Every structure is written in C-alpha cells, then in structure tokens.
Amino acid sequence: MRVPAKRYPRVTEGGRGGRLFAVCLGALALCGCRPHDFPQFPPNYREYAYVTNGDSNTVTVLDVVNVRLDREVLVGQSPLAVAVHPTRNEVYVVNSGGAGARGSLSVLNAENNSVAATIALHNRPVSIDVDGAHDVAYVANSGSNSISVIDLKARRETAQIGTGEQPVAVRVAPDGKTIVVANRGGNSVSVVDAANQRVRGIFEGCPGAADVVILPDSSKAFAACSGGHQLMAIALAHASEPDRLEATMDVGRGPVHLALKPDGGELFVSNSLSNTISEVYTSTDEVGGTYLMGDDPAHGIVSNDNLLVYVANERAQDVTTYAIEDGKRTRLPIHVGDGPTAMAFSAEGHLLFVVDSGSGDVAVVRTSSQSLFTMLPAGRGPNAIAVKAFRAP
User: How sure is the predictor about 7, in pLDDT bands with cuts at 50, 70 and 90?
Assistant: First the structure.
C-alpha cells in the first residue's frame, strides 16, 4: 500500500497529460534531423553508454556518437551497477551473483568493448565508486556487510573493510580521503578513512539508508533515509575536527536517490512515496521546497549547466523536469518506456539516456528540446547506466 503524500508549504504541480513527441528512428542521415543540432566529433572520438541487464547477465553497449546499438557483452551473474574510470579506458560492472553465490567485478576494455578481467568479490555486491587519481575502486558487499578495496591496475582485491549491516551505496570523496557508506539494514552511515582503511565513525538513526552524495570540496556528505522521510548531513573530518552529524532534515516520504548539482550548491531528493522531489541548500542544510513530480520518482540527474533536474518516475512512462532558477516543474512530461529507473547524460550533455526497467529498453532524449529522439534495445531487466568518452589510440 502506498503512503499518501505529505503536505508541504510549497508544492508545484504540473499536468499529468502529455503529447507524443516526434521520434527520429535510426541514424541522423535516416531521420532527417539537422546535423548541426549535434556535436561534430573528430574521427578518433569514441563514446559509449553501458547498461547493465540484471536478468540476462549482460551489458548493452550503445554507440553514443551514432545513436545506435553497438553490441551486448556477456558478464557475470545479475549485473547490478556500473562505473567508468575517469582516465583509463575501462568500465567496471558489479555482478551481484545468485542466491548463495559470490559476486564479481567485470572489467571491460572500452576500446574494444570486451571483458578484460574478472575479479572475485563477496556476497551480493551492489554498488561501486571509483577513485581515478589512485586507481582504486570501492564496492559495497550488501550480503557480507563490507566494502571491497580493488586495485584497478593489479586487478585484485587488496582489502575488505567491515561496515554496518547491508551496505547498499558507497561513495568516495573527490579528494580520495574518505569513503561514505549507506547501510540499509543497519539504519546507519559508515565513514571510512581511505588511507588506513578503517571505519572512523558510524552515524545511526538513518532508517533504510539508501543513497549517499559528497560535496565537490569533500567537506560534507548527505545520506537519504528511505525508511522514513529524513536526509542526514554529516560534516566530514578536516584538520583537527572529527566527523560529526550536522543536521537531520525532513524531506518527502521514502527518499531513495540524491542528485547533486555539479557546483554542489543544491541537492535534489527523489521521494518515492510522496511523488515529489525536495530541494536542499547544501551550505545551510535547509529544505527550500518540495515539488510534485510524477508517480514514484526513483532517480534524478542535474544538467551540467546547473539549470534543470530530470526526474525518472518509475511507476509511470515519463521523465519530468524541474527548473532550478524558476523553482517549478517545467513543460509536459517527456514520454519514455515503462519503468524508468536510471539516467545518464552524454559527455556533451546533448542527449539523456533513460533506462526503462519494465520495457527493457533505453529512451534517448534530446535535451535541447526535451523531447524523445529514439528508443534503443537493452537486455532483460536493465537497471543501471554509465557513459564513457575517449579518444581512440
């Protein structure tokens, strides 16, 4: 049973109706779209979107430059998360494994989109973050109550760090010094020192801890408490100051995902049980407002220019947008596939890829017009996406 939406002082509603946008099917030469609407790339430029398909044990690789399916790569059992290396041409896929089976990490060579290595993990790994400066990845093992430390050059696990019960999200601070983990089963947040690989603090009172973000200056972390209606703010240790709980804020019910502006000034919380997003000012830990979006908002993403928030509504077939400067929802919903759950921008930001878990496809949205461009196939049960751009050697 769904919980009725909580009432807030500022709620902006948009129409639930929509219209079908013109869809350009296939490559640009076949669809009649103007070439100058898209970036012009040099011949050796490559860009791919990687979609994990939990029910088919594969990764769908999409060619972003030509907007088409490139291939499908067989990985481990039940792939659930994906991340890219910021400088190395590698992609990392977390395979959660089956019942009683250990998970693994598949390393993909982005230059030829093949599996280059497989690294054994522990019980039910579900989340990954990459510290590119130190060639290290951190993987949350929800069934082992730990995070794995992965040496990406040596392609092996170097340590396993105990956390709280059922860690489901792991984030490394931009400076590489701190790792923050959301422990859903433990209703807590663990703060780990990356240098000595030890837990230096545990913050309880976050029911159903689900997601974590860290500010660009590595000064503060925020955790979504999906079992209630709270957002936890934790000031991270610096100089002689220890980690400390800075604030607990009331947002909507069932906060499941956090989307941070690139400049770090504001944070947007997807409240799945309230059908809203909450806008949070990160410097003051204040909730600026809560706005009605769509049915079961599951994922948000902020444009590179800090102007728009795109919100995927899992129990609908649309993505809604929120204009940050105007403080309101914009236009009509963008129609996509069934069960949109994850999103990623292309490197230039001209395309938004929306993973549709119900219909097993990826909607490609043109951000300039906020309209559907085309639909591309994925495998069974797609659930996560990441984009990697590079120059071929």
Answer: very low
